[in-house]
Amino acid sequence: MAFRPPLTIVIPVYNEGANFKAxxxxxxxxxxxPFGAIVVYDFEQDDTVPVVAEVVASGExxxxxRKNGYGRGVTGAIKTGLEAVESGSVLVxxxxxxxxxxxxxxxxxxxxEGFDLVCGSRYMKGxxxxxxxxxxxxxxRMSGLSLHYLRGIPTHDATNSFKLYDAAMVRTLxxxxxxxxxxxxxxxxxxxxxxxxxxxxxxxWRDRTAGSSQFRILQWLPHYLKWYFYAFQPVRTSERAxxxxxxxxxECMPPSMxxxxxxxxx
Length: 266
Ligand SMILES: Nc1nc2c(ncn2[C@@H]2O[C@H](COP(=O)(O)OP(=O)(O)O)[C@@H](O)[C@H]2O)c(=O)[nH]1
Ligand SMILES: [Mg+2]
What we know:
The chain is of the alpha/beta class. The protein has nine helices and nine strands. The strands form two sheets. Strands 3-2-1-4-7-5-8 form a seven-stranded mixed sheet, with helices on both faces. Helix 7 runs parallel beside helix 8. The longest helix is centred in the middle third of the chain and has 16 residues, at about 135-150. The two termini are about 35 Å apart. Residues about 245-260 and about 260-265 have low confidence and may be disordered. Bound molecules: guanosine-5'-diphosphate (GDP) and magnesium ion. Magnesium ion binds next to loops. The site of magnesium ion has 5 residues, from loops.
């Protein structure tokens, strides 16, 4: 089934049964933009699955449950969700209530203004990061700030997963990530190198209060480093020029999208 609402929310889950109802009530009360959501789980026994089924049975028609098409792991789960979205915009958010969902309508507004990637940003003015292991925080902050100041990527927080993408752009950037949350960094770096329009919005990230983190810093670090160094390649100026000339419009616009969703010169 193809997903065609103006906004599709992709939520990877790993035993988030204790969080899902609270997450859904925040999503439903914070987001005014018409949306659908794809919840991606890895295995049938995941304790999120019955809770999602209960919410759907209570009359919530905007949720689709999907099994990770790439076995287990959060990268495959996010990829499964992204690949199901054919047009419009797609937001990736976490199920453990770590992201600031009150920002989503504004993120969607920036997308309508012509941005292909809108990044939730903990390290710009007004952004915050609350909790989480010190080493993970420090690495993520250092990489985000250095990619911004040394490389000119238009966000201070490239590693954050909380991002809104143009679905057509995601379809052009073939995903190579295999582990952890490197995928958000990969797409940001590739969007930048290919001349897509990127912006950011201050957001607050909070560590979870229920369930447990699956983050594996040492195991995933080499994957993050790969994309970090990849970012220092030259920008593909021909791609950028072609896009600025308007030769690569999104294939399909959501019904509510005004004609203003056009790429603009960076
Ligand atoms: N499908 C799937 N989702 C996962 C996996 N690991 C984490 N997640 C989800 O990804 C989100 C963030 O995970 P979390 O472990 O809290 O990472 P942290 O916030 O960086 O500590 C949550 O929604 C998790 O349920 C996984 O192996 N498979
Ligand atoms: Mg978390």
